[in-house]
Design a protein that fits this description.
The protein has eight helices and five strands, in the order αβαβαβαβαβααα. By secondary structure, it is an alpha/beta fold.
Length: 188
Amino acid sequence: MFIGNQHLVKDFKGLVKNERLAHGYIFFGESQVGKFSFALSLANFLETGNFGSDGKMLSESLIIKELGIDCVREIKNFLWQKPQNSSKRTVIIDNADSLTAEAQSAILKITEEPPEHSLIILIVSNLNNVLPPILSRLQKIYFSRIGKNEIRDFLIKSLGIKKDKAEELAVLAYGRPGRAIELINNKE
């Protein structure tokens, strides 16, 4: 469920269509603004042609939540395999700004000479916690907060929340759709 920052959807669809997608990106911005959801939607688009998460298991994507040395080997092995259902093999590393210096150094080695058909996406909240050499090798994409009305409309149309409740949740979300969904789940 990706909402907001629709200019990025258009931009990335164009990059894919024109075969101009970079080998790696850092998606950064506050937490709960849709960075991870966008990364999954992009991986889905590369594999199925649909921008958005449609619940399908993606065979050409590897999602990393915690990075250890064994995981680095897995990433290397995964990226060097030729994609079968997509133009890219995609690795998404969530909370990459919390990785140790050693783990970031291992990622750096992968980004120095990535396979032609690979895509690495690091999800971070704080760019200051990412090693400068990684920052210089990957393109940075900023995700901003989303307007209250857009969050409200999403809650009403996609999640079936009543208008008054959706308005309240949109205000409490402070521009972060993930926060609105968290509030809904916490009240249940």
